[in-house]
Specification:
There is one protein chain. The chain is built from four helices and nine strands; from the N terminus they run H-H-E-H-H-E-E-E-E-E-E-E-E. With 215 residues, it is an alpha+beta fold. It has a single domain, classed as Alpha-Beta Complex (endopeptidase fold (from Nostoc punctiforme)). 36% of the residues are buried.
């Protein structure tokens, strides 16, 4: 049996609490299903970067937490979905807990802070954190977790606070619109309106756990 280290276990429990509370706000039956009181989520502990254990998904312990059906997983949301939260969830907080990437500070700083600790990729891979550069309208940048590679031009992400509403956005499509297909510019699905957003966002890159290939 493979055990996750303490820092990732804390992160997994914290994300479980966040999403259970979020689902409960939308559906009273979910609240009733969880008879054990859920503690108020605490800030993630400071931790140092580590490589993910071979063959182990750091997300696995926190997936079956959004429905009263214990077999339901976040990955089963195959359409873009908004999970309303009863407290504001910021993108950096959610990205840390969803991915296990232990970087702190504004989203726009994640790319520089990852250097020397994590792999920094130009193209997406599952489980990586996509780092948005800051813009005039998005001064602190943004981060989102890649959950699926659809094609060389399309991925799915889970992220939070996209509309500055503190909510969680699951399975949101992101399209590469860069001229050279290098993922330097993207457009993001607007789940609220049900269409691809018109704004183009600059991307710094993708932060991920190191593997044998990129150590």
């Amino acid at each position: 049996m493979i055990h996750l280290d303490c820092a990732h276990r804390v992160a997994a429990i914290s994300l479980a609490a966040i999403l259970i509370l979020s689902a409960g706000a939308a559906d009273a039956r979910v609240r009733a299903h969880h008879s054990i009181p859920i503690p108020k989520p605490r800030p993630a502990l400071e931790e140092t970067a580590v490589n993910a254990p071979a063959g182990v998904s750091l997300q696995a312990p926190v997936l079956s937490i959004i429905s009263e059906d214990p077999d339901t997983q976040l990955a089963s949301y195959d359409t873009p979905t908004i999970v309303k939260s009863i407290r504001r969830i910021y993108c950096v907080e959610f990205a840390r807990l969803r991915s296990g990437i232990a970087i702190f500070g504004d989203a726009k700083t994640w790319w520089d802070k990852a250097r020397g600790q994590y792999a920094e990729d130009a193209s997406p891979r599952q489980g990586a954190v996509m780092v948005f550069a800051s813009t005039r309208k998005m001064t602190r940048g943004h981060v989102a977790v890649v959950t699926r590679i659809v094609s060389s031009r399309e991925i799915r992400v889970d992220h939070a606070n996209w509309r500055r509403d503190g909510n969680i956005y699951l399975n949101a499509p992101v399209i590469d619109v860069s001229p050279n297909n290098d993922w330097s510019k993207v457009r993001v699905w607007d789940t609220g309106s049900g269409q691809l957003g018109s704004n183009t966002y600059p991307i710094k890159g993708f932060v991920a756990f190191r593997t044998a290939a990129n150590n």
